[in-house]
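Entry 0007
Protein: High-affinity branched-chain amino acid transport system permease protein LivH
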Amino acid sequence: MELFFQQVLAGLATGAIYACVALAVVMIYQAIDHLNFAQGEMAMFSTFIAWQLLQWGMPYWFAFFATIGISFIAGILIERIVFKPLDGAPVLSHVVGFIALFAIINSLAGWIWDYNVKSFPSPFGTGPFMGMPIISSHAAGMIGVTLILLILLFLFFRYTRIGLAMRAAAANPDSARLVGVRVSWMIALGWGMAAAIGAVAGIMIAPIVFLEPQMMLSILLYGFAGAVVGGLTSPGGAVLGGFMVGIIENLAGTFLGNLGRELKLTIALALIIAVLTIRPSGLFGQRITTRV
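Output (structure tokens):
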């Protein structure tokens, strides 16, 4: 039983990262109706920025918040420069744009910082959390940081004018324009926030997977799994989906032996297919109907 609880807590820790990535994916999807295949690379590049700031002697939490700010601005610039001109373009144009962005960011990170694996420090330490061997201090810290982030986002979207405007722009752009909401800039802010959330995910997971240009590839797939399972039209569902994928992945890796450890990603992808077969809009997503 102790092993079961240990793996559930470990799943919550990794699921917290998947939840952040899933939330970032859903935010951009709701803004432009496309999946951002470069979301993981944006998070990876942000993590390299944080690592570089730490190498220059900056305190951890100062580098943490500075990276979030830089990522937020970078996300807005990417939307303004790359994807705003693609507004109204065919779906394939967006797909090619995301793939190109993926390749550019990956190559740029390798060119600047090389492809060698680098260690990334943890502000929480690596020992047991409060002396309890059931969960490590860093895993508990990841869960705590993610919960704080999610609470702040909930308060922002629920009680601030900008947050309400962003929700309106995502739900019904035409009606939002009629009441004076600048939908184009709300989309840009969504990109900035998605990039900032991805930066948090990258910084938190880097001490576990280590830092290198390919570090976020599998994590992005798990994030996609969480977003699809929870529902691409439901940010809260995407978060819950990310936690679910993390728990299922850890339990499978522990109780299915070598098969579970070797097929973790396959299990996540099979989970996507199973959910979509039963409920195409995801567990918490809304079915979208169009009148023709």
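Curator remark: The CA atoms of residues 205 and 242 lie 14 Å apart. Residues 2-215 form one domain.
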